[in-house]
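It would be a great kindness if you could assist me with a short task in structural biology. The matter concerns a single protein, recorded as an amino acid sequence and a row of C-alpha cells. The record follows directly beneath this note:
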Amino acid sequence: MKRAALLLAVLCGTFCISLHAQEKTLQEKLGYPPDAKLLIVHADDLGVTHSVNAASIKALESGDINSASLMVPCPWFPEIADYAKSHPEADFGLHLTLTSERLYYRWGPAAPRDQVPSLVDANGYLHQDWPAKTHIDPKDVEREIRAQVARALAMGVKPTHLDSHQNRLFQTNKELLEIILRVGRENHLPVLIPRNWFDEFPFLEKTIGPNDVVIDQVITMEPGLAPEKWNDFYRDALSHLQPGVTEFVIHLAYANDEMKAATRERATWGAEWRQRDFNFFSSAEFQQLLRSNNIHLITWREIGRTMNVEAQPEK
C-alpha cells in the first residue's frame, strides 16, 4: 500500500511539473518573470527602396530598433540581402509579399508569373489590392511564398521569423494562414501571431497549433493620425504597455527624393510617415521611455530558441 501511494505521489509530482511547464508564459520561457514587459521594435518593408534600407540599417546599428523583415520580390532586396549575409547576428525575418500596392512603383512575384497567375495583374505585377471579386488561388500563394523563402536562402539570408506584408496571410482567410504556418513549421521559424487579433479574426485561434508561438499584441500606427500627434501615440503606447510580449511594427525611411517619388500617390506609409517613425525611435526620449517603464527589448531570434528547445526530444 505504501509503495503504491509513493508511486502515485511520484506520478502526480511529475504530472504537476509537466503541467507547470506547459503553462509557462512566453516571457517565462524567455527567462523573464510572468509580469515582465517585453518588446520587439520591428521595422517592416526592408528591400522596398534604398531609403528604407539605409534608415533601417542606421536604426539597427544605433540600437534604436532590434528586428526587421525583408520583402524578397522588391527591387532593393539584393542590397539588404547582402547586408543580412554579412551581418548574420541581425534579427531579420521575411515579410512575405503578395501585393504591390503602390501606383507607380511596382514589383512582380518571385515565382515565374505563369506559375502564380491569380497573383498577378495584366502587366505581370503583383496585384495592388485584393478586392472581394479577386480570385486568389491558395496553391499560387504557397508556390510564391516558397519561392520567396528559397530566394532569400539562396542569397544568404538566414531568417529568424516570418510575417506578412499588409497581413494578407493572417487576415484574409484560414487557408492562407495555414500556408504560412506550414512553411514556418517546416523551416522551424516562428510566425507572427498576436493574441490581440483573435477577436477580429477568430480563425486565427482555431488554426494555430500547440507548438506555434503566440505573442500578446501588435501595436502599429494606423492611418488618420495627425502628424503632430505622432509622438503622443508612441508615448502613450509605451507608458501603458502591458506585461507580456508586444511587437511595435514600424516603418522607417528617410523622406528623400527617392522615397517621395516611390510613394507620392498617397501619404499613408509614405516618405514623411516613415521619417516621423525614424525620428521618434532614434530619439533619446524613446530610450528614456523604455527605462522609465521597465521595458525589456527582445528579438524573434530569442523567441525561436524557445521553439527549438521545446522541439528537442526527451532523453
Notes: The first strand starts at residue 37 and ends at 46. The domain at 26-311 is CATH 3.20.20.370 (TIM Barrel).
